[in-house]
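Researcher: Please predict.
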Amino acid sequence: MAHQVVLDVSPRTVKGKANKRLRKQGLLPANIYGHKTDPTPIQVDALTFDHLRRQHDTRNVITLRLANSPEQTVLVRHVQHDPLTGGVLHIDFTRVDARERIESKVPLRFQGNAPGVKMQGGVFLHLVEALAVTCEAADIVEHLDVDISGLTEIDSVLHARDIPLPPNYTLVTDPDEPIAKIAAPRVEEAAPAAEVAPVAPAPAPEAAPTEE
């Protein structure tokens, strides 16, 4: 089970263009949706949220603590980015129950050594970043470990069905989806030798005219 992620947030009273002032103060506008409840406008400390993103904790269930209100269990539904700078502009959270089954993409973490690389000179290809699964919200893990020691030969392949899942997980990704493989090393073909055109002999110089 993933470790608990807690994020302190505050009520937000400004909307629209006024959100620009929030961002200048280091705060991000956000909304909480879901469970047939009216959206709740909140604001989030930008540095704290950026830290969660760098730790990949925004993929997990997050407990939001709002002063004078019950804690809310949420997932990050959408993050709006500035198209020029890439900075975060707005966050949408969606409410979930800890025992509610949800669909999530769980990152893969490859472990071990592939004999097909070490012994046969193959190239390890990492084909998929995450697996889509369903599980209870409280059971989302930070990553799935993938042992690549079974990739012993050139063209050996790991499929989605080969990845061990925690109890009560259901695979959504196509079981036959290739996850990783050992490819043959790329051999560069020697460039063909350039053909040398025969050189025509230079014409003999003409004799100077004789003065009469």
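Model: The helical segments are 19-24, 46-54, 115-118.
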